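Q: I'm a student working through a structural biology exercise. My instructor gave each of us a protein and asked us to get a predicted structure, then write a short paragraph describing it. Mine is Cation/acetate symporter. I'm not confident about reading structure output yet, so if you can add a plain explanation after the C-alpha coordinates, that would really help. Here is the sequence I was given:
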Amino acid sequence: MTGVLAAPAPPPIENTWAAPAIAFAVAIAIGVVVFVLANAARGRIRNPDDFLLAGRRVGAGQNALAMVGGTIMYSTVIIITGHVALNGFDAILLLTAFTMSTVVGVLIYAGPVRNVGGHTLGDVFALRARERPARMASAVLTLIVFGMFTIIAVGSVAFVANRMFSTSSTVNAPLVAGITAVVGLVAIAWVYLGGMEGVTKVLVLKVVLMGGLVAVLTAVVLARYKLNLVELLNDAEANAAPDKRGLDLLTTGRLFEPGSTYGSDQDPWVHLSKVFSIAVGALGMPFLFMRYFVTPNGREARRSAGWASIITVLFWTCMIILGLGAVAILGGDAIGLVGAHRDITLPKIADEIGGGWATGALGGIALMATGAIFATLLLNGVTSITKDVNAVRGRKLDPATELKSIRRNVLIVGIASLVGGLVMLTQLTHIFIPTSIDLGAACVLPAVVYSLFWRRYNTRGLQWTVYGGLAVTLLMVVFSNGVSGDPTALFPDADFKFVDFEPGLLGAPLGFLFGYLGSVTSKERDDARFAEAQVRALTGAVVPAGRDLPARGTDERGGDSRLVSETN
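A: Happy to help. First, here is the predicted structure for Cation/acetate symporter. I'll explain a few features afterward.
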Protein backbone atom coordinates (compact mmCIF):
# COMPACT_ATOMS: atom_id res chain seq x y z
CA MET A 1 0.00 0.00 0.00
CA THR A 2 2.96 2.30 0.39
CA GLY A 3 3.22 2.58 -3.38
CA VAL A 4 0.34 4.99 -3.82
CA LEU A 5 0.47 6.55 -0.37
CA ALA A 6 4.16 7.42 -0.55
CA ALA A 7 4.98 7.75 -4.22
CA PRO A 8 7.74 7.01 -4.83
CA ALA A 9 9.12 6.31 -1.33
CA PRO A 10 9.63 9.92 -0.16
CA PRO A 11 11.23 10.48 3.23
CA PRO A 12 8.83 9.79 6.13
CA ILE A 13 6.96 12.73 7.61
CA GLU A 14 6.67 13.07 11.37
CA ASN A 15 2.92 13.40 11.86
CA THR A 16 2.43 16.06 14.53
CA TRP A 17 -0.98 17.28 13.45
CA ALA A 18 -3.34 14.29 13.41
CA ALA A 19 -5.95 13.94 16.14
CA PRO A 20 -7.34 10.43 15.47
CA ALA A 21 -9.77 10.33 18.42
CA ILE A 22 -11.46 13.56 17.37
CA ALA A 23 -11.39 12.58 13.69
CA PHE A 24 -13.08 9.24 14.42
CA ALA A 25 -15.73 10.97 16.57
CA VAL A 26 -16.46 13.55 13.87
CA ALA A 27 -16.55 10.90 11.13
CA ILE A 28 -18.98 8.71 13.08
CA ALA A 29 -21.25 11.66 13.86
CA ILE A 30 -21.31 12.71 10.21
CA GLY A 31 -21.91 9.10 9.15
CA VAL A 32 -25.00 8.90 11.36
CA VAL A 33 -26.38 12.15 9.91
CA VAL A 34 -25.74 10.97 6.36
CA PHE A 35 -27.42 7.63 7.03
CA VAL A 36 -30.51 9.46 8.30
CA LEU A 37 -30.57 11.66 5.17
CA ALA A 38 -30.15 8.70 2.81
CA ASN A 39 -32.76 6.62 4.61
CA ALA A 40 -35.24 9.52 4.54
CA ALA A 41 -34.86 9.72 0.77
CA ARG A 42 -35.65 6.01 0.43
CA GLY A 43 -39.35 6.52 1.08
CA ARG A 44 -39.64 8.81 -1.95
CA ILE A 45 -38.20 6.28 -4.41
CA ARG A 46 -41.09 4.71 -6.32
CA ASN A 47 -39.66 4.25 -9.80
CA PRO A 48 -36.30 4.24 -11.66
CA ASP A 49 -36.39 8.01 -12.30
CA ASP A 50 -36.80 8.64 -8.59
CA PHE A 51 -33.73 6.52 -7.90
CA LEU A 52 -31.50 7.72 -10.74
CA LEU A 53 -32.59 11.38 -11.02
CA ALA A 54 -34.41 12.16 -7.76
CA GLY A 55 -37.58 12.47 -9.86
CA ARG A 56 -36.06 15.62 -11.45
CA ARG A 57 -37.12 17.53 -8.33
CA VAL A 58 -33.75 18.99 -7.28
CA GLY A 59 -33.94 22.79 -7.12
CA ALA A 60 -31.29 25.20 -8.38
CA GLY A 61 -29.78 26.02 -4.98
CA GLN A 62 -29.47 22.43 -3.84
CA ASN A 63 -28.14 21.29 -7.19
CA ALA A 64 -25.60 24.12 -7.26
CA LEU A 65 -24.18 22.93 -3.93
CA ALA A 66 -24.19 19.33 -5.16
CA MET A 67 -22.35 20.37 -8.34
CA VAL A 68 -19.67 22.06 -6.24
CA GLY A 69 -19.57 18.99 -4.00
CA GLY A 70 -18.74 16.83 -6.99
CA THR A 71 -15.60 18.91 -7.64
CA ILE A 72 -14.38 19.02 -4.02
CA MET A 73 -11.96 16.12 -3.86
CA TYR A 74 -8.81 15.25 -1.97
CA SER A 75 -6.71 16.62 -4.83
CA THR A 76 -8.68 19.85 -5.23
CA VAL A 77 -8.73 20.79 -1.54
CA ILE A 78 -5.97 19.23 0.53
CA ILE A 79 -3.33 18.77 -2.16
CA ILE A 80 -4.05 22.07 -3.91
CA THR A 81 -3.38 24.02 -0.71
CA GLY A 82 0.13 22.63 -0.59
CA HIS A 83 0.46 23.23 -4.34
CA VAL A 84 -0.26 26.94 -3.84
CA ALA A 85 2.10 27.14 -0.87
CA LEU A 86 4.87 25.49 -2.88
CA ASN A 87 4.40 27.04 -6.33
CA GLY A 88 2.60 30.30 -5.63
CA PHE A 89 1.44 32.32 -8.61
CA ASP A 90 1.65 29.49 -11.14
CA ALA A 91 -0.42 27.19 -8.94
CA ILE A 92 -3.03 29.94 -8.57
CA LEU A 93 -3.31 30.03 -12.37
CA LEU A 94 -4.22 26.35 -12.24
CA LEU A 95 -7.11 27.17 -9.91
CA THR A 96 -8.41 29.76 -12.36
CA ALA A 97 -8.85 26.93 -14.85
CA PHE A 98 -11.41 25.28 -12.56
CA THR A 99 -13.38 28.52 -12.38
CA MET A 100 -13.17 28.95 -16.15
CA SER A 101 -14.57 25.46 -16.61
CA THR A 102 -17.79 26.58 -14.96
CA VAL A 103 -18.34 28.94 -17.89
CA VAL A 104 -18.60 25.90 -20.19
CA GLY A 105 -21.24 24.50 -17.85
CA VAL A 106 -23.28 27.70 -17.79
CA LEU A 107 -23.08 28.63 -21.47
CA ILE A 108 -23.02 25.26 -23.25
CA TYR A 109 -24.09 22.34 -21.10
CA ALA A 110 -26.65 23.29 -18.45
CA GLY A 111 -29.83 24.54 -20.14
CA PRO A 112 -29.70 22.62 -23.45
CA VAL A 113 -28.69 19.34 -21.80
CA ARG A 114 -31.50 19.52 -19.26
CA ASN A 115 -34.02 20.44 -21.95
CA VAL A 116 -32.97 17.34 -23.87
CA GLY A 117 -33.89 15.27 -20.83
CA GLY A 118 -32.86 11.67 -20.37
CA HIS A 119 -30.34 10.20 -17.97
CA THR A 120 -26.88 9.98 -19.55
CA LEU A 121 -24.63 11.37 -22.26
CA GLY A 122 -26.29 8.83 -24.54
CA ASP A 123 -29.51 10.83 -24.55
CA VAL A 124 -27.64 13.85 -25.91
CA PHE A 125 -25.71 11.76 -28.42
CA ALA A 126 -28.93 10.11 -29.62
CA LEU A 127 -30.27 13.50 -30.72
CA ARG A 128 -28.26 13.25 -33.92
CA ALA A 129 -27.13 9.64 -34.17
CA ARG A 130 -28.75 6.24 -34.30
CA GLU A 131 -29.61 5.14 -30.81
CA ARG A 132 -27.53 1.98 -30.52
CA PRO A 133 -24.21 3.57 -31.62
CA ALA A 134 -24.99 6.62 -29.50
CA ARG A 135 -25.64 4.52 -26.41
CA MET A 136 -22.55 2.42 -27.07
CA ALA A 137 -20.36 5.53 -27.29
CA SER A 138 -21.85 6.90 -24.09
CA ALA A 139 -21.37 3.62 -22.21
CA VAL A 140 -17.76 3.18 -23.33
CA LEU A 141 -16.82 6.74 -22.38
CA THR A 142 -18.73 6.79 -19.10
CA LEU A 143 -17.51 3.43 -17.85
CA ILE A 144 -13.87 4.15 -18.72
CA VAL A 145 -13.98 7.38 -16.71
CA PHE A 146 -15.91 5.57 -13.97
CA GLY A 147 -13.25 2.87 -13.71
CA MET A 148 -10.34 5.31 -13.56
CA PHE A 149 -11.94 7.76 -11.16
CA THR A 150 -13.25 5.05 -8.84
CA ILE A 151 -9.67 3.89 -8.29
CA ILE A 152 -8.71 7.49 -7.51
CA ALA A 153 -11.68 7.90 -5.14
CA VAL A 154 -10.79 4.78 -3.16
CA GLY A 155 -7.18 5.94 -3.07
CA SER A 156 -8.30 9.34 -1.75
CA VAL A 157 -10.08 7.68 1.17
CA ALA A 158 -6.83 5.84 1.91
CA PHE A 159 -4.86 9.09 1.79
CA VAL A 160 -7.19 10.70 4.31
CA ALA A 161 -7.01 7.66 6.58
CA ASN A 162 -3.22 7.69 6.45
CA ARG A 163 -2.71 11.42 7.05
CA MET A 164 -5.58 12.22 9.42
CA PHE A 165 -6.42 9.03 11.32
CA SER A 166 -2.92 7.89 12.21
CA THR A 167 0.05 9.58 13.87
CA SER A 168 2.51 7.15 12.31
CA SER A 169 5.26 8.58 10.11
CA THR A 170 4.84 5.62 7.76
CA VAL A 171 1.75 3.89 6.37
CA ASN A 172 -0.24 1.86 8.87
CA ALA A 173 -1.49 -0.54 6.20
CA PRO A 174 -4.08 -2.51 8.27
CA LEU A 175 -5.64 0.70 9.64
CA VAL A 176 -5.73 2.42 6.26
CA ALA A 177 -7.16 -0.63 4.47
CA GLY A 178 -9.78 -1.14 7.18
CA ILE A 179 -10.97 2.48 7.14
CA THR A 180 -11.05 2.51 3.34
CA ALA A 181 -13.13 -0.67 3.17
CA VAL A 182 -15.60 0.59 5.79
CA VAL A 183 -16.04 3.97 4.09
CA GLY A 184 -16.53 2.27 0.73
CA LEU A 185 -19.23 -0.03 2.10
CA VAL A 186 -20.97 2.88 3.81
CA ALA A 187 -20.94 4.84 0.54
CA ILE A 188 -22.49 1.87 -1.27
CA ALA A 189 -25.22 1.85 1.40
CA TRP A 190 -25.85 5.57 0.81
CA VAL A 191 -26.50 4.92 -2.86
CA TYR A 192 -28.55 1.77 -2.25
CA LEU A 193 -30.82 3.51 0.24
CA GLY A 194 -31.17 7.02 -1.12
CA GLY A 195 -30.36 6.94 -4.82
CA MET A 196 -29.79 10.33 -6.43
CA GLU A 197 -31.72 12.23 -3.78
CA GLY A 198 -29.65 10.68 -1.02
CA VAL A 199 -26.36 11.30 -2.87
CA THR A 200 -27.41 14.91 -3.54
CA LYS A 201 -28.06 15.50 0.16
CA VAL A 202 -24.68 13.98 1.02
CA LEU A 203 -22.96 16.31 -1.46
CA VAL A 204 -24.81 19.31 -0.07
CA LEU A 205 -23.80 18.38 3.48
CA LYS A 206 -20.23 17.91 2.27
CA VAL A 207 -20.08 21.43 0.80
CA VAL A 208 -21.66 22.99 3.89
CA LEU A 209 -19.21 21.27 6.26
CA MET A 210 -16.05 21.54 4.17
CA GLY A 211 -16.89 25.03 2.97
CA GLY A 212 -17.69 26.12 6.51
CA LEU A 213 -14.41 24.74 7.87
CA VAL A 214 -12.39 26.28 5.04
CA ALA A 215 -14.15 29.64 5.55
CA VAL A 216 -13.37 29.60 9.29
CA LEU A 217 -9.70 28.76 8.67
CA THR A 218 -9.50 31.50 6.04
CA ALA A 219 -11.09 34.04 8.37
CA VAL A 220 -8.57 33.21 11.11
CA VAL A 221 -5.66 33.62 8.69
CA LEU A 222 -7.01 37.00 7.55
CA ALA A 223 -7.63 38.04 11.17
CA ARG A 224 -3.99 37.33 12.00
CA TYR A 225 -3.06 39.88 9.36
CA LYS A 226 -5.92 42.25 10.26
CA LEU A 227 -7.25 41.85 6.70
CA ASN A 228 -4.01 43.29 5.33
CA LEU A 229 -3.50 41.17 2.23
CA VAL A 230 -0.36 43.07 1.24
CA GLU A 231 1.34 42.07 4.47
CA LEU A 232 0.17 38.47 3.99
CA LEU A 233 1.65 38.38 0.50
CA ASN A 234 4.91 39.96 1.68
CA ASP A 235 5.31 37.35 4.42
CA ALA A 236 4.49 34.54 2.00
CA GLU A 237 7.16 35.79 -0.39
CA ALA A 238 9.72 36.32 2.36
CA ASN A 239 9.15 32.95 4.08
CA ALA A 240 8.82 30.78 0.95
CA ALA A 241 11.35 28.03 0.45
CA PRO A 242 13.76 29.05 -2.30
CA ASP A 243 13.11 27.63 -5.74
CA LYS A 244 15.92 25.56 -7.23
CA ARG A 245 16.30 28.25 -9.90
CA GLY A 246 15.91 31.17 -7.50
CA LEU A 247 12.40 32.10 -8.71
CA ASP A 248 10.09 34.07 -6.44
CA LEU A 249 6.84 32.59 -5.12
CA LEU A 250 4.56 35.33 -6.42
CA THR A 251 6.01 35.72 -9.88
CA THR A 252 5.50 33.33 -12.75
CA GLY A 253 8.11 30.70 -13.39
CA ARG A 254 8.05 27.94 -10.79
CA LEU A 255 5.88 25.86 -13.11
CA PHE A 256 6.14 27.74 -16.41
CA GLU A 257 9.87 28.28 -16.87
CA PRO A 258 11.99 25.75 -18.81
CA GLY A 259 13.18 23.00 -16.49
CA SER A 260 10.02 23.00 -14.35
CA THR A 261 9.00 19.51 -15.47
CA TYR A 262 11.30 16.59 -14.71
CA GLY A 263 13.31 15.50 -17.74
CA SER A 264 11.31 17.65 -20.14
CA ASP A 265 12.04 20.28 -22.76
CA GLN A 266 8.36 21.06 -23.34
CA ASP A 267 7.86 23.76 -20.69
CA PRO A 268 5.92 26.05 -20.44
CA TRP A 269 3.44 24.05 -22.54
CA VAL A 270 3.23 21.36 -19.88
CA HIS A 271 1.54 23.67 -17.38
CA LEU A 272 -0.37 25.71 -19.96
CA SER A 273 -1.85 22.50 -21.37
CA LYS A 274 -3.09 21.53 -17.90
CA VAL A 275 -4.83 24.87 -17.54
CA PHE A 276 -6.46 24.49 -20.97
CA SER A 277 -7.55 20.89 -20.41
CA ILE A 278 -9.15 21.65 -17.06
CA ALA A 279 -10.94 24.72 -18.45
CA VAL A 280 -12.59 22.83 -21.33
CA GLY A 281 -12.76 19.29 -19.97
CA ALA A 282 -13.44 19.29 -16.22
CA LEU A 283 -17.23 19.57 -16.42
CA GLY A 284 -17.37 17.06 -19.27
CA MET A 285 -16.64 14.16 -16.94
CA PRO A 286 -19.84 12.06 -16.94
CA PHE A 287 -20.31 11.95 -13.16
CA LEU A 288 -20.38 15.77 -13.08
CA PHE A 289 -22.33 16.02 -16.34
CA MET A 290 -25.26 14.06 -14.88
CA ARG A 291 -26.05 16.90 -12.44
CA TYR A 292 -27.83 18.76 -15.27
CA PHE A 293 -30.50 16.08 -15.63
CA VAL A 294 -31.89 16.27 -12.09
CA THR A 295 -33.43 19.77 -12.14
CA PRO A 296 -37.09 20.39 -13.04
CA ASN A 297 -36.28 22.31 -16.24
CA GLY A 298 -33.56 24.02 -18.26
CA ARG A 299 -33.95 27.34 -16.47
CA GLU A 300 -33.25 25.71 -13.11
CA ALA A 301 -30.25 23.91 -14.62
CA ARG A 302 -28.79 27.21 -15.82
CA ARG A 303 -29.43 28.81 -12.45
CA SER A 304 -27.76 25.93 -10.63
CA ALA A 305 -24.72 26.10 -12.94
CA GLY A 306 -24.52 29.87 -12.39
CA TRP A 307 -24.66 29.61 -8.61
CA ALA A 308 -22.18 26.75 -8.68
CA SER A 309 -19.69 28.94 -10.56
CA ILE A 310 -20.04 31.71 -7.96
CA ILE A 311 -19.58 29.29 -5.06
CA THR A 312 -16.59 27.74 -6.84
CA VAL A 313 -14.88 31.13 -7.18
CA LEU A 314 -15.41 31.86 -3.49
CA PHE A 315 -14.15 28.42 -2.47
CA TRP A 316 -10.98 28.63 -4.57
CA THR A 317 -10.31 32.12 -3.23
CA CYS A 318 -10.29 30.65 0.26
CA MET A 319 -7.92 27.88 -0.88
CA ILE A 320 -5.52 30.47 -2.30
CA ILE A 321 -5.52 32.45 0.94
CA LEU A 322 -4.95 29.29 2.97
CA GLY A 323 -2.09 28.18 0.71
CA LEU A 324 -0.33 31.52 0.89
CA GLY A 325 -1.22 31.86 4.58
CA ALA A 326 0.39 28.49 5.28
CA VAL A 327 3.75 29.48 3.84
CA ALA A 328 3.52 32.93 5.45
CA ILE A 329 2.70 31.61 8.94
CA LEU A 330 4.47 28.24 9.00
CA GLY A 331 7.45 29.14 6.84
CA GLY A 332 8.71 27.52 3.68
CA ASP A 333 10.47 24.68 5.47
CA ALA A 334 7.34 23.53 7.34
CA ILE A 335 5.11 22.88 4.30
CA GLY A 336 5.30 19.92 1.94
CA LEU A 337 8.46 20.53 -0.06
CA VAL A 338 7.97 17.64 -2.54
CA GLY A 339 4.96 16.63 -4.58
CA ALA A 340 4.17 13.60 -2.43
CA HIS A 341 4.02 15.78 0.70
CA ARG A 342 1.83 18.61 -0.57
CA ASP A 343 -1.13 17.16 1.33
CA ILE A 344 0.45 17.89 4.74
CA THR A 345 0.18 21.67 4.29
CA LEU A 346 -3.56 22.10 4.96
CA PRO A 347 -3.64 19.91 8.10
CA LYS A 348 -0.52 21.66 9.41
CA ILE A 349 -1.99 25.15 9.02
CA ALA A 350 -5.26 23.88 10.54
CA ASP A 351 -3.29 22.52 13.50
CA GLU A 352 -1.45 25.82 13.88
CA ILE A 353 -4.72 27.76 13.86
CA GLY A 354 -7.11 25.52 15.77
CA GLY A 355 -5.11 22.64 17.22
CA GLY A 356 -6.41 19.09 17.43
CA TRP A 357 -10.05 20.12 17.17
CA ALA A 358 -9.44 21.71 13.77
CA THR A 359 -7.41 18.82 12.36
CA GLY A 360 -9.83 16.28 13.81
CA ALA A 361 -12.76 18.06 12.18
CA LEU A 362 -10.82 18.29 8.92
CA GLY A 363 -10.11 14.55 9.02
CA GLY A 364 -13.71 13.55 9.71
CA ILE A 365 -15.11 15.88 7.06
CA ALA A 366 -12.48 14.86 4.50
CA LEU A 367 -13.30 11.19 5.04
CA MET A 368 -16.97 11.84 4.35
CA ALA A 369 -16.07 14.06 1.38
CA THR A 370 -13.98 11.39 -0.32
CA GLY A 371 -16.63 8.75 0.38
CA ALA A 372 -19.22 11.01 -1.24
CA ILE A 373 -17.18 11.09 -4.46
CA PHE A 374 -17.16 7.28 -4.52
CA ALA A 375 -20.95 7.28 -4.06
CA THR A 376 -21.39 9.83 -6.87
CA LEU A 377 -19.27 7.77 -9.23
CA LEU A 378 -21.13 4.59 -8.34
CA LEU A 379 -24.51 6.14 -9.11
CA ASN A 380 -23.21 7.44 -12.44
CA GLY A 381 -21.81 4.04 -13.41
CA VAL A 382 -25.04 2.24 -12.49
CA THR A 383 -27.07 4.81 -14.45
CA SER A 384 -24.99 4.18 -17.57
CA ILE A 385 -25.34 0.41 -17.18
CA THR A 386 -29.09 0.72 -16.66
CA LYS A 387 -29.82 3.08 -19.54
CA ASP A 388 -26.96 2.83 -22.03
CA VAL A 389 -25.84 -0.79 -21.76
CA ASN A 390 -29.39 -2.13 -21.59
CA ALA A 391 -30.33 -0.06 -24.65
CA VAL A 392 -27.35 -1.47 -26.57
CA ARG A 393 -28.47 -4.97 -25.61
CA GLY A 394 -32.06 -4.19 -26.59
CA ARG A 395 -33.36 -4.89 -23.07
CA LYS A 396 -36.52 -3.10 -21.95
CA LEU A 397 -37.64 -3.69 -18.39
CA ASP A 398 -40.86 -2.66 -16.71
CA PRO A 399 -40.35 0.00 -13.99
CA ALA A 400 -40.59 -2.38 -11.02
CA THR A 401 -38.12 -4.86 -12.51
CA GLU A 402 -35.79 -2.06 -13.56
CA LEU A 403 -35.74 -0.61 -10.05
CA LYS A 404 -34.80 -4.00 -8.61
CA SER A 405 -32.10 -4.33 -11.26
CA ILE A 406 -30.73 -0.90 -10.38
CA ARG A 407 -30.40 -1.74 -6.69
CA ARG A 408 -28.82 -5.08 -7.52
CA ASN A 409 -26.32 -3.33 -9.78
CA VAL A 410 -25.47 -0.86 -7.02
CA LEU A 411 -24.37 -3.75 -4.81
CA ILE A 412 -22.56 -5.71 -7.53
CA VAL A 413 -20.79 -2.76 -9.18
CA GLY A 414 -20.12 -1.05 -5.85
CA ILE A 415 -18.46 -4.02 -4.19
CA ALA A 416 -16.48 -4.90 -7.33
CA SER A 417 -15.29 -1.30 -7.63
CA LEU A 418 -14.31 -1.14 -3.98
CA VAL A 419 -12.30 -4.37 -4.22
CA GLY A 420 -10.61 -3.16 -7.38
CA GLY A 421 -9.77 0.16 -5.77
CA LEU A 422 -8.29 -1.56 -2.74
CA VAL A 423 -6.14 -3.77 -4.96
CA MET A 424 -4.91 -0.73 -6.91
CA LEU A 425 -3.77 1.09 -3.75
CA THR A 426 -0.34 -0.40 -4.33
CA GLN A 427 -0.02 1.29 -7.74
CA LEU A 428 0.82 4.84 -8.80
CA THR A 429 -2.51 5.79 -10.39
CA HIS A 430 -2.50 9.59 -10.10
CA ILE A 431 -2.45 9.77 -13.92
CA PHE A 432 -6.13 8.74 -13.98
CA ILE A 433 -7.39 12.16 -12.81
CA PRO A 434 -5.93 14.24 -15.67
CA THR A 435 -6.74 11.47 -18.15
CA SER A 436 -10.42 11.63 -17.20
CA ILE A 437 -10.39 15.41 -17.63
CA ASP A 438 -8.65 15.03 -21.00
CA LEU A 439 -11.44 12.70 -22.15
CA GLY A 440 -13.97 15.35 -21.18
CA ALA A 441 -12.10 17.80 -23.42
CA ALA A 442 -11.42 15.45 -26.34
CA CYS A 443 -14.70 13.50 -26.46
CA VAL A 444 -17.54 15.05 -24.50
CA LEU A 445 -17.15 18.73 -25.41
CA PRO A 446 -16.97 18.30 -29.21
CA ALA A 447 -19.67 15.61 -29.27
CA VAL A 448 -22.11 17.70 -27.23
CA VAL A 449 -21.39 20.94 -29.12
CA TYR A 450 -21.85 19.24 -32.49
CA SER A 451 -24.97 17.36 -31.35
CA LEU A 452 -26.63 20.55 -30.18
CA PHE A 453 -25.44 23.14 -32.69
CA TRP A 454 -24.22 21.65 -36.01
CA ARG A 455 -26.76 20.73 -38.67
CA ARG A 456 -24.54 18.25 -40.52
CA TYR A 457 -23.62 16.06 -37.53
CA ASN A 458 -24.53 12.38 -37.75
CA THR A 459 -23.78 8.88 -36.47
CA ARG A 460 -20.38 8.50 -38.08
CA GLY A 461 -19.39 11.95 -36.86
CA LEU A 462 -20.30 11.00 -33.30
CA GLN A 463 -18.37 7.73 -33.49
CA TRP A 464 -15.29 9.41 -34.90
CA THR A 465 -15.49 12.13 -32.25
CA VAL A 466 -15.79 9.78 -29.28
CA TYR A 467 -13.59 6.90 -30.38
CA GLY A 468 -11.07 9.11 -32.17
CA GLY A 469 -10.74 11.44 -29.19
CA LEU A 470 -10.52 8.43 -26.87
CA ALA A 471 -7.80 6.76 -28.96
CA VAL A 472 -5.69 9.91 -29.29
CA THR A 473 -5.95 10.68 -25.58
CA LEU A 474 -5.06 7.18 -24.40
CA LEU A 475 -2.23 6.91 -26.94
CA MET A 476 -0.71 10.16 -25.71
CA VAL A 477 -1.14 9.08 -22.09
CA VAL A 478 0.73 5.83 -22.75
CA PHE A 479 3.70 7.82 -24.04
CA SER A 480 3.47 10.56 -21.40
CA ASN A 481 5.49 11.25 -18.27
CA GLY A 482 2.65 9.80 -16.22
CA VAL A 483 3.48 6.33 -17.49
CA SER A 484 7.28 6.41 -17.89
CA GLY A 485 10.30 8.66 -17.76
CA ASP A 486 9.50 10.20 -14.38
CA PRO A 487 10.11 9.09 -10.77
CA THR A 488 6.37 9.31 -10.06
CA ALA A 489 5.28 7.50 -13.25
CA LEU A 490 3.49 4.16 -13.35
CA PHE A 491 6.76 2.61 -14.58
CA PRO A 492 9.43 4.86 -13.07
CA ASP A 493 12.34 2.69 -14.24
CA ALA A 494 11.29 2.77 -17.91
CA ASP A 495 11.46 5.68 -20.34
CA PHE A 496 9.50 5.56 -23.58
CA LYS A 497 7.77 8.92 -23.24
CA PHE A 498 7.76 11.66 -25.82
CA VAL A 499 4.73 13.62 -24.58
CA ASP A 500 4.94 15.78 -21.47
CA PHE A 501 2.10 18.23 -22.13
CA GLU A 502 -1.49 17.38 -21.24
CA PRO A 503 -3.20 15.31 -23.99
CA GLY A 504 -6.32 17.49 -23.83
CA LEU A 505 -4.42 20.33 -25.51
CA LEU A 506 -4.23 18.26 -28.70
CA GLY A 507 -7.19 15.95 -28.05
CA ALA A 508 -9.84 18.71 -27.91
CA PRO A 509 -9.18 20.20 -31.37
CA LEU A 510 -8.67 16.73 -32.82
CA GLY A 511 -12.02 15.65 -31.38
CA PHE A 512 -13.71 18.47 -33.27
CA LEU A 513 -11.74 17.60 -36.41
CA PHE A 514 -12.65 13.91 -36.22
CA GLY A 515 -16.32 14.79 -35.77
CA TYR A 516 -16.23 17.06 -38.81
CA LEU A 517 -14.47 14.56 -41.04
CA GLY A 518 -16.71 11.70 -39.96
CA SER A 519 -19.85 13.71 -40.64
CA VAL A 520 -18.92 15.08 -44.07
CA THR A 521 -17.73 11.67 -45.30
CA SER A 522 -21.06 10.07 -44.43
CA LYS A 523 -24.19 10.23 -46.58
CA GLU A 524 -26.38 10.32 -43.51
CA ARG A 525 -28.09 13.69 -43.12
CA ASP A 526 -31.32 14.59 -41.38
CA ASP A 527 -32.10 18.30 -41.23
CA ALA A 528 -35.47 17.59 -39.64
CA ARG A 529 -33.74 15.81 -36.78
CA PHE A 530 -31.48 18.84 -36.31
CA ALA A 531 -34.48 21.14 -36.25
CA GLU A 532 -36.10 18.97 -33.60
CA ALA A 533 -32.89 18.93 -31.58
CA GLN A 534 -32.70 22.74 -31.76
CA VAL A 535 -36.26 23.18 -30.57
CA ARG A 536 -35.81 20.66 -27.80
CA ALA A 537 -32.46 22.02 -26.59
CA LEU A 538 -33.73 25.61 -26.50
CA THR A 539 -37.24 25.05 -25.14
CA GLY A 540 -37.59 21.50 -23.88
CA ALA A 541 -40.49 20.90 -26.27
CA VAL A 542 -40.53 17.79 -28.45
CA VAL A 543 -41.47 18.29 -32.10
CA PRO A 544 -41.47 14.89 -33.86
CA ALA A 545 -39.18 15.03 -36.86
CA GLY A 546 -40.46 13.64 -40.11
CA ARG A 547 -44.06 14.51 -39.23
CA ASP A 548 -44.23 18.23 -38.50
CA LEU A 549 -40.88 19.12 -40.12
CA PRO A 550 -39.72 18.09 -43.61
CA ALA A 551 -36.39 16.31 -43.81
CA ARG A 552 -33.84 17.06 -46.54
CA GLY A 553 -31.12 14.79 -47.87
CA THR A 554 -30.69 11.13 -47.19
CA ASP A 555 -30.82 9.13 -44.00
CA GLU A 556 -28.75 6.01 -43.50
CA ARG A 557 -31.26 4.78 -40.96
CA GLY A 558 -33.66 3.79 -43.69
CA GLY A 559 -35.81 6.93 -43.55
CA ASP A 560 -36.92 6.68 -39.92
CA SER A 561 -35.99 10.11 -38.52
CA ARG A 562 -37.93 9.97 -35.27
CA LEU A 563 -36.01 11.05 -32.19
CA VAL A 564 -35.45 8.12 -29.84
CA SER A 565 -35.75 9.75 -26.44
CA GLU A 566 -38.32 10.46 -23.81
CA THR A 567 -40.47 13.58 -23.56
CA ASN A 568 -39.56 16.23 -21.04
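A: Here are two points you could use in your paragraph. The CA atoms of residues 429 and 566 lie 39 Å apart. The chain has one domain: 20-539. It's a good idea to check both against the output above yourself.
Q: Great, thank you!
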